[in-house]
């Protein structure tokens, strides 16, 4: 049987898919899923994605030695250890630790995909490791772009296209969003940062003074771990 | 002040826009908005878009000499005069007549955009006429893709890109969907039908035996009328 390789361009479109029929890859390039990939690769024991800032804060009350990370609109929420800058997820900072994380877009997309067969986390940092694993699964794949405030964004779509490129030659049926993502990736792949420099989100992040984060999130294949959701926690796929 | 030129990739994303801030262009290339442009250009007095098949049927009871058109899932609904094939909107058939029309995607997108400053109808048939008029408006423009069952499709997105191409040189701010639409159009423009032949929707329409409709809907600039919503009716913009 031929499997589907579909792309969901925004969390607002997730209800259009029978999520339970797919392995879902959550994509939030700037910056949540890049940081999650980096953190898990750097030995974080687990990263717990939660939807609300309040849920994140509630972990403080439990008296556990968790790191608490909260980002809204691209900035660290006051009172939290850090947000979703990848530079907060170095080995030194997260090795052996559990991080509780809430972000504007990425954790939202993840929670809407809960009924999937499996949920894994993708970013340019683990592109080839992720794609190689997907090739072994013989299943339907849904690449879910977290987007920006429920709308389409280019960086997540381009990454979906990068995964599709790696899966070429396998017998998948692509939907229209997958064809578009694949074609846009062809335009972008020789100069990812140049291509993405023209996007609205990139402008927005520049204003926040986090150009270094953006550049870091476009590093291809600097990690080999695949974060997978197990219960409430993202852990390293064995 | 710089105006926005935005693209809404699916009706499901319309709530993310402040529709009242824009002139909205409704796009449903295969086939509703192509047929509307053709019908209005061929002298139809008005085309009344309604959301539900039942609303369309209700006009029969009124005993008016309206033509009733209803399409669902690409097919004419049994009991109706016709659906949304452009070949039903020739001068011979619609000149001087009023058509009541309900379609799967196009009329849905239109009704969700009701609060816009103005609603006009776009298709390849009236591309240049529409774009020339938009250039004179000095206002925010939202290109709304009707898509397929609330999801993204390539043909509507490519057309949005064609409009953006025509508006180049004007000082508009593009959002990410507009950048994507524009880039995809660059890939498609030299061979629209070849590019779109790979889409899922094109496959679906082929199965319905309406390849001729598809080819017809990709005729560029064979009409000069711009349908505009006035009250409940689409009429020719004077």
Report on the structure:
- The structure is a homodimer of 238-residue chains.
- With 238 residues, chain A is of the alpha/beta class.
- Chain A has one domain (3-236): Alpha-Beta Complex (putative 2-phosphosulfolactate phosphatase), CATH 3.90.1560.10.
- Chain A has ten helices and eleven strands.
- Chain A has helices spanning 32-41, 53-61, 91-94, 106-112, 127-135, 154-166, 176-188, 192-196, 200-207, 211-217; strands at 3-8, 23-27, 46-49, 67-72, 75-76, 98-102, 118-122, 141-145, 172-174, 227-230, 233-236.
- In chain A, the strands form three sheets. Chain A has a five-stranded parallel beta sheet, sandwiched between helices. In chain A, strands 3-6-4-5 form a four-stranded mixed beta sheet, sandwiched between helices.
- In chain A, a hairpin with a 2-residue loop joins strand 10 and strand 11.
- In chain A, helix 5 (127-135) packs across helix 6 (154-166) and helix 6 packs across helix 7.
- Chain A is globular, with a radius of gyration of 16 Å.
- Chain A binds chain B through residues 9-10, 12-13, 16, 148-154, 157, 174-177, 179-180, 183-184, 187, 198-201, and chain B through 9-10, 12-13, 16, 148-154, 157, 174-177, 179-180, 183-184, 187, 198-201.
Give a topology summary.
The structure is a homodimer of 238-residue chains.
Chain A: E1 3-8, E2 23-27, H1 32-41, E3 46-49, H2 53-61, E4 67-72, E5 75-76, H3 91-94, E6 98-102, H4 106-112, E7 118-122, H5 127-135, E8 141-145, H6 154-166, E9 172-174, H7 176-188, H8 192-196, H9 200-207, H10 211-217, E10 227-230, E11 233-236
Parallel strand pairs in A: 1-8, 1-9, 2-7, 2-8, 3-6, 4-6
Antiparallel strand pairs in A: 4-5, 10-11
Helix pairs in contact in A: 5-6, 6-7
